[in-house]
Amino acid sequence: MKEAKEQSIFEWSIKLKTITSLIIFVFALLFLFDGFYITAKAQYAQYLIADSWRHYMNTGEQKKPWPWADTYPVAKLEMYQKTQYILAGASGRNLAFGPAHMLQTASLGSPGNAAIAGHRDTHFDVLKNAKMGDLVYLTSRNKNLKKSTISSLNSKDAYLKQAYRVTNIEIVDQHNLDVLDNNESTTSITLITCYPFDSIEPNPPLRYVVKAQKI
Q: Which domains does the chain have, with CATH numbers?
């Protein structure tokens, strides 16, 4: 009787371990799938944004990357061997998909100070490599061309590519709005991200600010 009971306990222990292992395996697969899904979703979003950008450049018409988007690409930023599309409006939703233009600042490529925000752990992680004198390239649509004429021209004519040189790098408090001050006597861009780069705090009180002036 005792041996039968011990055998039953042993068999139940084996079954419990098997069930536990199976549950762990299933959850591991779910986490793995979720990781792949998020990565695939992010990559596909970039493809749609790039397609929307090409449409904007070739036609002058703003096109949402996907039907429910509340933004569209307005410029292309090239820095530190990385090309990124700038979205209109620096909302939390837009920043999840790329750097975004702060609409209360100057228009991109126009005289004044245009500010662009981006997340420190994704799109603007490259800012930690910024040095004084570095070159940054901003491509926007040539606003001197009318929509009706763009389609009849080579698509390259619609592109206005400008070179900017990094003139200032500073760390400021998140409430310091001086970095957004406008000066229409120059054409500049201000790149802003959270700081420190390696902090696990979701919204630290400091901002890393890189300012570049058109040359």
A: 41-214 (2.40.260.10)
CA distance 21 to 79: 47
Structure tokens at 22: 């199976």
| Torsion of Cα atoms, 28 then 32 then 34 then 36, to 10° | -170
Q: How far apart are CA 103 and CA 26, in angstroms?
A: 45
Distance between CA 8 and CA 12 in Å, rounded? 6
d(CA 169, CA 127): 10
The model carries a pTM of 0.78
For 117-154, write each residue's pLDDT tens digit.
999 999 999 999 999 999 999 999 876 655 544 444 45
* Alpha-carbon distances, residue 194 vs 127, 134, 205 (angstroms): 10, 20, 8
CA distance 208 to 188: 17
Q: What are phi and psi of 12, to 5 degrees?
A: -65, -35
